[in-house]
Amino acid sequence: MIQLSEAMDNQTGDGTTSVVVLATSLYEYSFQLTRRLHEAKNLLSQGVHVMDIIRGFTFALTMIEEPLKNISTPLPPRNDSSLEPILLQIATTTLSSKISSHVAPTLARIAVRACLQVGVSDHTSMLDCIHTIRDKGGECQLVEPIPCIIIPDDPKKPLSQAIITSKVAVLTFDLNPSSNKLGYVNNTSSMSTEQVDRMLKHEDEFYKKLAVQVRKLGINVIILQEKLTSAEDPVPEAAAKLFIRAKITVLRPFQKEQIRMVCDVSGIRPIVSHSQLFELSKDTASAHVFDFKSINPILVSIPYIQIVPETVKRNHVSIVLGGPKLTAIEEIDRALHDVLRVLESSLLSNGVLPGGGACEMAISAFVSNKMQSMESIHGTVVESFCKGLEQIPRLLCERAGLNPTGCMNRLKIAHSTEPNCKKGIFLGEQNGIFDMAEHGVLELLENKLMLIRMATQTAIQVLKIDGVHQVKS
Q1: Which of 34, 105, 246, 322 satisfies CB 3.0 to 4.6 Å to 139 for a cystine?
Q2: pLDDT tens digits, 25-43
Q3: Is the separation of the CB atoms in 251 and 223 below 8 Å?
């Protein structure tokens, strides 16, 4: 069951609780069929063979798609203004079951706006283009304007005050010449004074040549990659002095993910070696340099700055996540990750379904109607499949404080008599049975199909193990 929940989370980002509840319910009803329980209600006096149950469940799975498509609603195109309210309803439904549901309205609006700004790409996941900043004691907000690059700032030397117009390059090689295989060594304890002086002279010449080449290319801001040197300071003191004289700003080292973000947004390629840097000219350097459009400080607990490139190649957005404690922010971050996964699937989805157990009741009514023409054992197994599905709305009734028996009877009547019925259990200011589509409780068609299939296959897998034990006993 743990693996099932993890698989559901990896596939869709939601439905981890529902898939476990459904799998255990299906197994429970099927397990009862394999035992001779004379005193239990609605069960056969003789046990049903495991293979009969597996065949019945597999047959029932072939019938779930038709009733779901009957009650589904196609999503509008991405450029349609009516898409945003639907995505907002999907995001709110996803967040309503999270621990951080108290920030669901705000987080849903932020997630939908970020999703629409980034869009869906065939090459990269949407999650790779949405970055979060944790602000203890702050509030959740979407950084404006978008798209932009958010990087850490140095409070002692604020970049936003030092730079007005800049050309930026990304260097992924180490500035220390000993790391560039120039024949230098870091350990000077075994060297004579003359050798040390000669080495330092060569280093100064290397740094001077480096600074001259950088200025010749018109670059005045350098972004370095983190953890490429064993030295404490990635910018040696001699190099730092020369860069200051040449009016070149070196930002604090970036992580690999931040380097990739900068390159994706601006459309540039990093400079990977000192030899490549020295071979560049002003004409060929354009592929490795981008211009600032604006640069602004972000007022959060940890200093950050917002860089907006002149030309944007791939949209990236940043979201500030605030909360009273770090544990609360981590929970909000997890909820945001889940809802972004669902929204990404929504942009590729064929339709949406009503939530609140309406899908399970629609399948149960459809399959029960088909069950009348089945033989006795086959029909009994399919009936157990329907009972397992009905556990989802039954649990919602109990959570809402409603009478499960009365509510389930009314739902069964509604789904049996009304064509394409979308009624389910609504949990809100007024709990009860309502049309889920009208109340904005929506789920994705593909996610629901995957949830039911994965839960059924898991129940079948456990049943096969039971069958092996039955034969041995």
Answers
A1: 322
A2: 988 888 777 664 333 334 4
A3: yes
Are β-strands 432-435 and 423-426 bridged in parallel, bridged antiparallel, or unpaired?
antiparallel
Indicate the Cα dihedral angle 156, 161, 165, 170, nearest 10°. Answer: 20
Q: CATH assignment of 152-313? A: 3.50.7.10
Cα 365 to Cα 89: distance, rounded to the nearest angstrom = 26
pTM of the model: 0.70
Residues near 386 by beta carbon (within 8 Å), at least 6 away in sequence: 60, 363, 364, 367, 368, 371
Q: How confident is the model at residue 312 (pLDDT cuts 50, 70, 90)?
A: low
Average pLDDT over residues 137-157: 58
Q: Where are the alpha helices (DSSP H) in 150-192?
A: 159-162
Structure tokens at 428: 């809100």
Name the CATH superfamily housing domain 2-74+352-472. Answer: GroEL-like equatorial domain (1.10.560.10)
Q: What are 173-202's pLDDT values in tens digits?
A: 877 765 544 444 455 556 677 777 787 788
Which tokens is 21 given? 């509840």
**What is the DSSP code string of 308-331?**
EESS-SS--EEEEEEESSHHHHHH
